[in-house]
Design goal:
mainly alpha, Helix Hairpins, elongated
Length: 107
């Protein structure tokens, strides 16, 4: 039989690995589509980190609350970034990150 502690550790190590890959991808992204994909990878790693909490019976309600908040945060972030990509494409006909300035003063 497999030790449950090892399974939880494996899930958390995988989650942290995906999060680090997403951070590196976000830092090195040259366009907004890659940035969007890296942000979604970050939220996926958070969901993966939540999985072990559902296996503990006393934490199921708290895990469900955290999962619901994370889903709403992820979906609102996705909608805002897609709207930003569409707006930037209409204004500048370019979705590279070099066309974005701090504070949006270039828009």
């Amino acid at each position: 039989m497999i030790d449950p502690v090892i399974d939880v550790a494996t899930i958390l190590i995988t989650s942290v690995s995906i999060l680090m890959i997403a951070y590196l991808m976000a830092i090195s992204s040259k366009d907004l589509i890659r940035l969007l994909i890296s942000l979604e990878l970050m939220f996926a790693s958070v969901f993966l980190a939540l999985l072990p909490l559902f296996s503990i019976e006393s934490l199921i309600n708290e895990s469900l609350g955290i999962a619901v908040i994370t889903v709403f945060t992820s979906s609102s972030e996705l909608l805002v970034l897609i709207a930003t990509i569409v707006k930037l494409d209409k204004l500048k006909e370019d979705i590279t990150t070099s066309s974005i300035f701090a504070g949006g003063e270039g828009l």
